[in-house]
Amino acid sequence: MNTTSLEDAQVPGPDAAPGRIVLLTTSHRVAPGLLSWPAWQALRAADRVLCADGAHPQLPYLREAGIAVDEAAPTAQELVDACAGGHTVVVVATGEGEPALTDGLARLAGTGRIAMPELELLPASYDLPGARLLDLVQVMDRIRAECPWSSRQTHEGLAKYGIEEAYELVEAIEAGDREELREELGDVLLQVVFHARIAEEDADAPFSVDDVAGGIVAKLIHRHPHVFGDATAETPEDVKEHWLRTKAVEKQRTSVTEGIPLGQPGLALAAKLSSRVRTAGLDVPLPQGEGIGYDLLALATRAEADGVDPEAALRAAARAYRDAIRAAEGVAGQGPSGGQP
Q1: pLDDT digits (tens, 9 = 90+) for 262-319
Q2: Are 331 and 300 in contact (CB under 8 A)?
Q3: What SS3 state is found at 83?
Q4: Which residues contact 224 (CB under 8 A, 6 or more apart)?
Q5: Which of 25, 72, 211, 234 has the fewest CB atoms lying closer than 10 Å?
Q6: DSSP string, 7-71
Q7: Which ranges of 112-148 would DSSP assign to H, the alpha helix?
Q8: Distance in Å from the first CA to the final CA of the chain
Q9: What's the whole-number mean pLDDT along residues 324-328?
Q10: pLDDT over 80 at 136, yes or no
């Protein structure tokens, strides 16, 4: 790479045209070399292209395209001088950006004594929606390799955190707290990525987060023929019918109870069983017995038939009870929540 110093350039006279600075930014989440057409135009038309990072991932691709890049980290004054005479200098920004350079240019402009070049910020590549998920996968890789706690975790050891985070997400939804909702969604997402990263190390049946994402994408497409195929669905009921029909073909279950996790909270379990029975059109009387369990089963079944989530209804009532307890104690607000390290 050319490493000619900017100090070698001739200092222009006071009447020289100020020129133009193009600060070229790229996203590390997009493959190097995939630059926008305006970026390539600016690079080819520039009188000089500079980059302070000799290991910048874009540089091999720029060289392959015939772009000469000088490895240089000019001061703001040196860059202004290099632009004088109407020259255009493109600065390929490093991963951290160029805060020292832009701050220096702002200070020069603030003096009012220098004819400043035109300054353009040109994004050369853009993040697609979901691109920050790549950052999460990368961070998780490093944590798994270097963190003494995370490197020793197993699916079994993390299971309790998955349950905790799911409940905290539900709590944020029911509380209507948007900031808390965003944070709890992130915590749930972490559980997915963490488990997928652990799964990569399995000696017998490894899979990655890409396999996880690919599987759910395929499932969603298959179960939405009204979106991705020729089927039609005019109402939510039509969509549910499509979903249940395709799911039944996929699973080939012999009982409507298959796939219902028995470890979930009792009211939710009872409601799910009732929902499966009602959807399948079965006539199954509730078992008769003595005790609160059978009474709760009947209440959960009735709630589900009325379109009420009995678990959510009980949580709402329990929160009201909690507030009454705290009021009696003279305590305001809520207690802290848990979570993994």
Answers
A1: 888 899 999 999 998 988 888 999 999 899 999 999 999 999 999 999 999 999 999 8
A2: no
A3: helix
A4: 239, 242
A5: 234
A6: GGSPPPPTTS---EEEEEE--TTS-TT---HHHHHHHHH-SEEEES-TT-TTHHHHHHTT---EE
A7: 132-146
A8: 45
A9: 93
A10: yes
CB-based contact 15:86 (threshold 8 Å): no
CB 67 within 8 A of CB 43: yes
Residue type, 125: S
C-alpha 327, offset from chain centre: 39
Q: Say which residue, 135 or 96, is predicted with more confidence.
A: 135
CB hemisphere CA count around 91 (13 angstroms): 27
Q: Is 33 exposed, middle or buried (0-12, 13-18, 19+ CB in 10 A)?
A: middle
Token pair for residue 181?
């909702």
**Alpha-carbon distance 146 to 148, whole Å?**
6
H/E element holding 242?
helix 236-251
Question: What's the chain's Rg over C-alpha atoms?
Answer: 30
- Strand-pair category, 48-51 with 70-71: parallel
pLDDT at 9 over 50: no
